[in-house]
Specification:
- The protein has a single domain, classed as PF0523-like (2-Layer Sandwich).
- The protein has 7 helices and 4 strands.
- The protein has helices spanning 20-30, 44-47, 50-62, 71-80, 85-92, 107-117, 131-143, and strands at 10-16, 37-41, 100-104, 119-124.
- It has a 4-stranded antiparallel sheet, sandwiched between helices.
- The longest helix has 13 residues, at 50-62.
- The radius of gyration is 14 Å and the shape is globular.
């Protein structure tokens, strides 16, 4: 398992000439059980949920309590506020290659994703831990068992 604290999650608003399917394909190829690239629709409300979702998913990963098979999917579940993967994709999945958010567990994965998709970083996201949002994200994991 990747050591908690050795990695630093990063997120950015991006644009790419790659197709949406191409972006998703590269994200999946980079993602593994303990590392990921997650492609999301743009939105300030999602940006605030990224760090709390990552922390909750990482705890589940460390405790072998994930509902999904990967950290990537687990983060998506917490970001979306639902424990149903199909609903999570509908609520938060990227809808355009022209403006989307990429979220990953470390800078190495982000650089690899940007290079392989020829993406342009429009804005680096500031990941914060807001108590109200953090509570909402954590409760998402308890509401749907």
């Amino acid at each position: 398992m990747a050591g908690f604290g050795k990695e630093r999650p990063v997120a950015a608003l991006m644009s790419s000439e790659s197709t949406l399917e191409g972006l998703l394909s590269v994200a999946l190829s980079i993602s593994r059980k303990d590392g990921f690239v997650l492609i999301l629709r743009e939105g300030d409300e999602l940006e605030g949920r990224l760090l709390p979702a990552y922390l909750n998913a990482h705890v589940r990963y460390a405790e072998n309590g994930m509902r999904s098979g990967s950290l990537q999917k687990e983060v998506l579940l917490f970001v979306s506020g639902t424990m149903n993967i199909a609903n999570a994709i509908k609520l938060c999945g990227a809808v355009s290659n022209k403006r989307f958010m990429a979220f990953t567990n470390d800078q190495i994965n982000m650089k690899k994703f940007v290079k392989e998709t020829n993406s342009k970083v429009l804005k680096e996201c500031i990941l914060v831990l807001d108590n109200k949002v953090s509570t909402e994200v954590a409760l998402a994991g308890l509401q749907e068992s």
